[in-house]
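Supplementary Data S3. Sequence and structure tokens for construct A.
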Amino acid sequence: MTSISHHRGGSALAIVAGTALLASAFVTAPAAAQTSDLVNRATLRVCADPADMPLSSEKGEGFENKIAELLAKDLGVPLAYTWFPDATGFYRMTLGIKRCDVKLGVPQGADPFLNTNAFMRSTAVLMVKKGSPLEGVDTLSDEKLKGKKIGVVAGTPPASHLLKNGLMPQAKPYSLTVDRRYFSPVEEMIGDIQSGAVDAGVFWGPIAGYFAKKAGDIVSTPLVKEKGSPSLIYRYTFGVRPGEDNWKHRLNDFIAKNQSDINKILNDYNVPLVDEQDKPIAVSQ
């Protein structure tokens, strides 16, 4: 496994880099596919954050780790990681310098990545303590939230909705950019909900669902009914270097073929999955 020294700061995905690349053969089992000659043929080289549960961890405990294992099996090659915190410099220090060939969790449209098709569509959630009068609230425009203290990550789309609904004056902000090896805003928010320091909290569902389930006394409700801009529902893709279209197509084939298994992995981590009609997806085990 490759390891890179860790630096964290600023916002993720800030460095624009990427070139058009020549194509060559990427040998898979059972057939060969064409891809860039900068993609390693013998090993699935994944770029990942070493401490970003439930997405990824150096111990291989995150859902991106489990999807990577499924992908390596599909390709018929061993799996190796390049570790770097998912913040400023991530692309430049991983894909950009050819240390690895794919990142398994990239928002659709995020520069400078070339995006595959989405493997996950998910949403922000509202977290409250079990038995709270706010349990069952599923929009930020609900009158029950008026006058309540709500936790929210500063500078995110949910914060815009709190502002629109007049909820920001009493809101408690949490940090957007942190080093997850040392700080966890979602766990801080859940602790504040449990103690009563805030009445509710809004957080990105794939992270919040996992920690809410782990806490045991927290209910997380997907905010799929929220209207207006910005959207609280997002598509997540695999990210590769610009120009590596054949590699992207090979990954798209994997996603299409294994979507059911991917959904089961995500469901194990309590990720709220949403279909194209903004309806929650029920995952059969």
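Construct B, processed identically:
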Amino acid sequence: MNQNNNLIKGYILAGLSYALWGILPLYWKQLTSCSPVEILANRIIGAFILLIVIILITKKKGFGGYLRDRKKRMGLIITGTLLTINWFIFIFAVNSNHVVEASLGYYINPLISVLLGMVVLKEKMSKLQILALLFAFCGVMYMTLSYGIFPWISIVLATTFALYGLLKKIHGLDSILSLLGEVMIILPIMITYSMVQWYKGDNQLFVGDIKVVIFILLSGVVTVIPLYLFAEGTKRIPLSSVGFLQYIAPTLMLLIGVFVYGEAFTYAHKISFVFIWIAVILYAVSLIRNKKSKVIKYTIETVHSKEAPPLL
């Protein structure tokens, strides 16, 4: 019973984290009076402060080891850079009316992660995953040829986040502790930028209306809370389930972009997204097949060993 409750709690927490990420465009749209760099600066400063509070309250240990370990320190520098680029491009996309293109990026992100796993980690790809990648490639190329413009926002968002996840796995970085190190990497630059803006009288935290000030002050909260929920949820549920849940975010983004902000969803968009959605379905089926094979393997092991560990 406790195991089932823990599993249900995991699905709720992970699902909620993706839902919060999915509606994040609604939040950043409230800060259109700020430049993307200013929003990023306040997001990083706010996240740093909140992370310090969370680590002190939860008494998490081990951050000093990250800084002393040269390999992990270099990993933090690279992941911090990738995260900063990803955050900036996402904020830029939302506030320049490219939410639909941002959603496309997060649809194809898992597929790029699979490709990186094959190239870097020498992981084997199933035929369905290869087919999914081909459909995703066709979708991106169709949009490129239709508009004559490469969907760079989608590709940058997908690639930076996929590389970010890959490096997290390679270096074995804890979600909360590593995020603190990552924001610390760029923190001095962001503080300097904010001070220059304050000196020039352009820092919206001091000259903006009360609504803008409140949204700026809470930018760290909307950054850290979904990540914390994600970390708590995913450690309770199978990895294959995370593969399904992650599509909550781009689906909500797409709906918000089209129905809330009235972004164009042309015939070319429809064709491209059909290719992407087929790729997503194929990827989902590959996860189901992988899950079934693990169940069969577990059953066989259970028959031969009374001490087989729990499947989930």
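Residues 2-304 form one domain. Confidence is low (pLDDT under 50) at residues 295-312.
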